[in-house]
């Protein structure tokens, strides 16, 4: 996220971000950003938190007459509820919420924000979604890259449940087919859950409702696919594409895990089955629309999730992110006070989101866009630099046919 | 990994790294580093690759009379086999290995290293392990931090198999007990697999042997626990501790996933069960040996994996990393040539590692140490800066008792 | 400037910045920031540009009840004149202004902002001054650090003119005395020029008026002194304190040079005279108020400008920054059109600042504060990390008395 | 210097560096690097320090068959004199050398390296020169960029002495002519001083000899010109090209100042004279050999030093760096002991370099190459990213002719 900084807590004046390095000469207005802001908003249905937020984004700088200048783009969203409020629950001032950031923030900073975690509010994700929307605009326009996330599990309800025979969905033809065809419009037809399956979606909605009614909460997973990514993105060691994606995803509040391609289930598949054989790429395929050279090869299967050795191979990139059950629940909990002097019972007043995965969908998409954008810029620098070198006078000697797997 | 750079391919003169920012005044010699280098070496048993490597580390700079100066520490390990060799298999020069980095490196760089992936060799992990050993020395000496990784699954053989009732080991008392007691000496008693269970270890060894005999390969998972970490480490947004850990782990070759605390299984547990209630910390517990103030609270359970809102709470940090089956196998595979002109059958000659998890153990430990060290240095800067501020003249008004979960 | 990002052009909605890493628990309100904003404003006198600007800063985030939370601080200043305006001079649309950024911005971005350089407006310095004011607050409160800049030359009028006998003011006792006593209140008594000498100030004012009347412009230099900086700040190689200061100063618009301590003139002084002998530090001196250990030594002279080998020695840091004559002048200039097709005469309408040094004073102070803050945070991390190491078991052998000057 | 890390002290096993991001597919062997290493070596004449050093560079990684792979390039130079030696001068163990880093290193790290400053040895510049040579190879091959530094003053002996009428050499036609024609071969004809003027060179040599005979030292300045740099390099705010150049130059040991283009003298020139009018660029000029589009304009004069608003305009970049008199001198100095308990007389034994500027020439060139390389890579990313955007549907409205100088 070298190109992105952001600020904001729950109850400050505004939340915002600065995007540095956006290419100049791209059409950009608030209308490109607002749709993802709105998809992120709470209050979209009976099963998400009903508080009404407006979240109108304003471009502060970096564009003129609707075109990017190449200079930093400042984005801002006013907080409408700027003052700390009493949620009618003095106990929440005495007790750090279990599994919430209240306690660790106090340990880190030595200052207790009146709004508990302060910075660890879901409102900080507004800046991420806004910046991601700008990156997505570029990726789509310049390379035809499409990013779509959707819910694949809520609690124990899975869209593609693992089985001993098929420990990973990467071997399920239905899953692979879905990756090829899914788009955001389709995903949003399955509101409020955003799981693109009539049957699974219904069961997930029931599951969330059940937990909501019990004033409890439940977790779930979001799967994301990124299509039309050119080959060659990602750095070979520390900044492998999967590593920077994992970093980005685990930086989203409430996440507990990340797997890409065959993932954890892939560990149970023999190498002879797991390896993705190369085949000749169809003429029409690949990075044709990207303006970059089309790859000669593609893979027959895609257990790799579009990344091999940290570098994209042109196949769809896909991964799954785990979100825990929200920590703030109405259900009463016995826990200690901040000073450790006594234990008591804490129960959050008001209505709280029983499951975050439907709203996490645009956040996962936004973070994906930022990561792909960064890796694309790095590779652009490399390609550009190489392109000005003269052809090698020397040729690789023909006897250099040794291959080693190294150790 | 801001404090660490490294270089090296399979067949170059040496591999090495530079560690910047190591605290001055710490005793350090090669003897502190070599043990982990040796644990990383292949050829430790019949089920790992038998090629003999020496991997003697040499400190180039940054110490004098066995004490760190605070200046950059250069570390180097000579490659004994510096020239590309013919593995007797011309086909490997024509075919990119399926699911290996051969193809993507060529797409990225436009240059084909004679050793296939070149930089994507397991030899690049030598620099990581060496740097990690230096970080570990500091963490142990200064804060009593202990990092221990071990194998928890090979193929479908799990040390703690998930069940519908217990979808995550974070709710298994045996697992939690193991985290408290495990150390490296114990782990190495279970060589060659490094799974600290007589029974599971035996079955894993059989599993690996079976795949080796079929010239095939299999994946597995490594679990790592970090004990005695002070509270307050990790940054609140993009550099949450779990995010930087995930980045580090997914940068290790052959990884497919990362989960911390309750992980993917935790998504299936209700919030009321998943939340970790706070209790008063026992006098003897916590960061006592670290020289940092002891926390007043600890948690009764540890589904959080020691991190809440991206920041450590003083409880043990634990996570699990998925490793895929190695791509280079003797088993024959039908795949395309580099130019996509024809398909053929590729079968790697020589003996290849059928499962990487036993050797991955010290690499996971090393990357953990580097991440914790970085986050500790950041927090030291914050604590140090804050400590020189005068007490606040102003007090937080007593009516500021509002708490919100934010959105 | 790792801790600081900013955005804004001349005519966008607002300019602003994000400060990351400000220590928590510090009192901070807009009243701490506004004074420097006001000192930066144009229109302070007859010899500076008369356009009226308000430049009211608003804290967006990172504080609550007037105390910093440790989270990112967003600062914003609305642009009152948000729309590009016709300055009645169509020629300025056809011609890139000589020695201005109009042309190079177009070459870099391929997009021509209607306001010429766009980002290269003096308005971008608002974010710097705002962020600097926050850093200064901390440095003053926590370490008693004081930063004061003032004008030392305008055109050929020098406050301390170099002579063959005294090629650098670092050997002038009057100059050294001034460094010890100068403060901002004194500097502002010498408005509009901000040169703390009745006589020189008068001559400088005359010089500027003369160039204003000719619709021409003139350059000058600003000297800055930073007092009470603890010893040990700055990194030994690439981030020497003088290197990061030089980076910061040369990033200010219109700068042409940087020298610290004896500077360019010091090259003409023999080493035997230039070297600063060490003497015992007086009990009352040094970093006493900083909470850091007081140095045992100080230097008799200060040709070093408070920095030796890139690291502070506790003596006052001082340096001088060169500002060129402003490029935008009413004076007519013959120059080529953007497309190079023809040459013509360009003369800027309106009134333009004939000399920027008086207004540059708070900008130089702000950038100084940001640099010192960054280096202080790094050193805090090092001190903190080292403080938890056990005492060395081993002692440095007494025979290790070799000293070499290295090569 | 994001792409470059290095290690090494005077007496450790080796000094070295890692270059990350070198474009793949470039021919590179030790023979490309060694010449600058040799130019940096001491002992090249009677007026530089006579200790003999070999400084043979070895490529450790990142190339194969003499071609860069795109992976990190490790470079190493063995230290031949690895053990701290007694220079026969116990006093140097008791006394920190005045104006040397001995004292500040101890203040920073709390550890006293036996070799005094340790890291602050001129030997650390070996890694810079080696990395710079690799960058230069690319810049020359890909863009025809040529970097040449030379000595322009020693003590009070100036090649282009400033006068009241001509306060800056940027207005001297002889100087501008020299910038156009100078190359390294010519500079080295003027060994030992490297000032390309028979007359000035002789006087400088005499000046250095005089100080050497008095066991004293003297400073000087180095001017550097970078030709054929494409327009558009450098970032608009904090990473203006002059700012990153200043950072790089002030990071070289013993530097005291940096000025570019008209520099400090330019402050005394009226804007009407100082501004560089644009003229149509000749067909043959500019970035023709660079593969980047040729600029339509160039400037008639070059007070800007090739950079306007932080961004290159295609004209030659030139700047001057001040080096102080070396701190280690045979001349006796009265100074305090480390503990401040007593004062005494210190006189360095052995022969020490009386003036560093001749040897600083290749170091200035190396750091210039690293800075230009970094800025070029950034601009490559921007150009590459922009090139894939579709043409703007919208056109800038013709009435947008407002131009403002901003404030």
UniProtKB/TrEMBL annotation, chains A, B, C, D:
Q: In which pathway does it act?
A: Metabolic intermediate biosynthesis; chorismate biosynthesis; chorismate from D-erythrose 4-phosphate and phosphoenolpyruvate: step 7/7
Broadest EC class?
lyase
What biological process terms from GO does the record include?
A: amino acid biosynthetic process; aromatic amino acid family biosynthetic process; chorismate biosynthetic process
Q: Name one GO molecular function term.
A: chorismate synthase activity
Substrates-to-products reaction catalysed: 5-O-(1-carboxyvinyl)-3-phosphoshikimate = chorismate + phosphate
The record's InterPro entries line, in alphabetical order, gives: Chorismate_synth (IPR000453), Chorismate_synth_AroC_sf (IPR035904), Chorismate_synthase_CS (IPR020541)
Which UniProt key words apply to this protein?
Answer: Amino-acid biosynthesis, Aromatic amino acid biosynthesis, Lyase
Q: Does the keyword Lyase apply?
A: yes
What Gene3D superfamilies does the record tag this protein with? Chorismate synthase AroC
Quote the record's cofactor note. Answer: Reduced FMN (FMNH(2)).
What is this protein's record name? Answer: Chorismate synthase
What is the originating organism of this protein?
A: Neoarthrinium moseri
Q: What is the lineage of its organism?
A: Eukaryota, Fungi, Dikarya, Ascomycota, Pezizomycotina
């Amino acid at each position: 996220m070298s190109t992105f900084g952001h600020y904001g807590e729950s109850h400050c004046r505004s939340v915002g971000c600065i995007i540095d390095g956006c290419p100049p000469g791209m059409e950009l207005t608030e209308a490109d950003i607002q749709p993802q802001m709105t998809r992120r908003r709470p209050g979209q249905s009976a099963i998400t938190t009903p508080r009404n937020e407006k979240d109108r984004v304003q471009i502060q700088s970096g564009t003129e007459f609707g075109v990017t200048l190449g200079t930093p783009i400042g984005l801002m969203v006013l907080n409408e509820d700027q003052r700390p409020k009493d949620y009618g629950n003095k106990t929440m001032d005495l007790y750090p919420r279990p599994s919430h950031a209240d306690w660790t923030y106090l340990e880190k900073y030595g200052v207790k924000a009146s709004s508990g975690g302060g910075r660890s509010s879901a409102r900080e994700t507004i800046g991420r979604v806004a910046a991601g929307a700008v990156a997505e605009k570029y990726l789509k326009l310049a390379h035809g890259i499409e990013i779509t996330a959707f819910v694949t599990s809520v609690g124990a309800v899975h869209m593609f449940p693992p089985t001993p025979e098929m420990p990973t969905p990467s071997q399920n033809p239905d899953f692979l087919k879905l990756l090829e065809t899914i788009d955001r419009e389709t995903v949003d037809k399955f509101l409020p859950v955003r799981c693109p399956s009539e049957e699974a979606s219904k069961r997930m909605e029931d599951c969330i409702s059940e937990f909501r009614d019990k004033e409890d909460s439940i977790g779930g997973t979001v799967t994301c696919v990124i299509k039309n990514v050119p080959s060659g993105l990602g750095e070979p060691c520390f900044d492998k594409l999967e590593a920077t994606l994992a970093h980005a995803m685990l930086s989203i509040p409430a996440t507990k895990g990340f797997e890409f391609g065959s993932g954890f289930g892939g560990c149970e598949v023999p190498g002879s089955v797991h390896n993705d054989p190369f085949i000749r790429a169809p003429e029409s395929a690949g990075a044709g629309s990207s303006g970059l050279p089309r790859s000669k090869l593609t893979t027959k299967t895609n257990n790799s999730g579009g990344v091999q050795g940290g570098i994209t191979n042109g196949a769809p990139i896909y991964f799954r992110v785990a979100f825990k059950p929200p920590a703030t629940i109405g259900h009463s909990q016995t826990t200690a006070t901040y000073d450790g002097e006594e234990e008591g019972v804490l129960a959050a007043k008001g209505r709280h989101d029983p499951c975050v995965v439907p709203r996490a969908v645009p956040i996962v998409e936004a973070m994906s866009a930022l990561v792909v954008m960064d890796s694309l810029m790095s590779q652009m620098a490399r390609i550009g630099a190489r392109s000005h070198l003269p052809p090698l006078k020397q040729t690789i000697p023909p006897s250099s046919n040794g291959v080693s797997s190294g150790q």
